[in-house]
Write a structure and sequence with these properties.
four-stranded antiparallel beta sheet, 0% helix, 49% strand, 11 strands, globular
Length: 119
């Protein structure tokens, strides 16, 4: 199984950015994908997740600003981020889980993509 993120960039506060996560190697498309982030000097936290049945979950600080969606035809999961804040600055990771529920552990992780929110 391989997972890869892309789309990280430097964004001004209040701006928007969409990250992509491509997943390959699972036999079915009912896998769950979680988005995580790790800011410098802080522990990694889970930002949100989309289950194999397209149920989504988010941490409180991103609710209403971040949206996770998936395109099964392209084996891609998206993290759409709006109204970005400096506190959103982090390396963002996606991880995939063969079983469709958003429960740890995840089976495969990407290498991460840097998101920097700064004026």
């Amino acid at each position: 199984v391989q997972v890869a993120e892309s789309g990280g960039d430097l964004v001004r506060p209040g701006g928007s950015l969409t990250l992509s996560c491509t997943v390959s190697g699972f036999r079915t498309k009912s896998y769950a994908v979680g988005w995580f982030r790790q800011a410098s000097g802080k522990e990694r936290e889970r930002v949100g997740c989309i289950s194999g049945r397209n149920m989504t979950y988010y941490i409180d600080v991103v609710k209403g600003r971040f949206t996770i969606s998936r395109d099964n035809e392209k084996n891609t999961v998206f993290l759409q981020m709006e109204n970005l804040k400096p506190d959103d600055t982090a390396v963002y990771y996606c991880a995939a889980r063969r079983i469709s529920t958003c429960v740890s552990p995840f089976d495969a992780w990407g290498q991460g993509t840097q998101v920097t929110v700064s004026s």
